Structures are given as structure tokens and as C-alpha cells.
Amino acid sequence: MKPENKFALTVYLWGAITGVISGALSVQNRAAWILGALMFLITDVFVRAILKDELPEELKGLEGKELRGAILRKAFWGWLLFWLYFTMLVYTVGIDFRPVPYNNQSLLAQMMNST
């Protein structure tokens, strides 16, 4: 597998992990979304721990803060997508969301009343 693909999958995994943590904690405390968003700042630590020496070509040769910044810039949109999706999914399941139809003639109301 290409290093770019491994990098992307690792970022997606970290986004899913932080999303599950953020969503589960948000059920009890709304400020947990902030904690989940702050977990983005340690994305580079997770990526380097998983990939070790298999970074994409554009990241090889960078050290220290330059490498950290490059990883965070490259990972931002992929991480954000997975974090947001899993945060909302886990939060919605956690609060036991039930749709409420406001119109008895709507398709939703008909579907809910037919069961």
C-alpha cells in the first residue's frame, strides 16, 4: 500500500476515534465537543506512532515543528470529516433521539403511526 494511502487511513482512524470520544462525552457535557476538537492537535503524534518511517514523500526530510505543521495541514480536512460524522452519530445515538412529526399528514407521521 502506498504511504499516502496509509497516511490517509491513519488520519481517518484518528478522526473516528476522536469523534467517538467527543460524541460520547457530549451526551453528558456539551463542552466535550471542544475537547474533541482539541484532540486534533495531537494528530501528528498518532500518525507518527502508527506509521513510524512510512510517511508520504512530501513529509520526508522534515523535522520538529515543520513536520508537525505539515502533518496537521495535510490531515485537517480528512480528520474534520470523520470527527464531525462520528461525533454527531454517537451523540445522536447517546441521547436516544426520536423524530417528532409536527404535521399529522406528513410522511414521517404516517410511517410512525403505521407501526
UniProtKB/TrEMBL annotation:
Domain of life: Archaea
Keyword Transmembrane set for record: yes
UniProtKB keywords: Membrane, Transmembrane, Transmembrane helix
Transmembrane segments: 7-25, 31-51, 75-94
Protein name: Uncharacterized protein
Organism whose genome encodes this protein: Thermococcus gammatolerans (strain DSM 15229 / JCM 11827 / EJ3)
